[in-house]
Amino acid sequence: MLSLKPSSKPRPLSELAAAPSNPRRITADALLGLGVSLTRFGDLSGVVLNERTGRLVCGHQRVEALRRAGATSWHRDGDRGWIEHPTTGERFTVRVVSMTEREEIAANLTANNPMIQGDFTAEALPQLAALKVDLPEFGDLALDGLLADLSLEFPTEPA
Fold this sequence. Notes:
This protein is α+β, with helices and mostly antiparallel strands.
């Protein structure tokens, strides 16, 4: 079995194996756009704060959800920080960047650009159907809407 214990030595990226059950795919063009975004803006999938403007670049909804859960503060250590979930104690990383206002706007638009996010595949349908049975909070996660949308996109053939 692969050991993923922390280490200060570089590890091969091949250790980060793709899950065969990943229900998302991405076109070559979208992957190219995502690559440009990663190179230009870094990771925009978490919470990113622009220290020049004091505004979030992305992660607005994550911060709001944490606020509603009762979080009232965040911690900073250099160009990283975290918000602690008040119930679970999990730390959500805040990346601190220094961007011009124009870069901030471009990065925010890029982080929310559906053209570089990829699409669900037909394999997502059976995964969603199984989750609907096994996961009580299925509807709360809006997965039932996703199931309905994907059922229209990938209709199953009559038995």
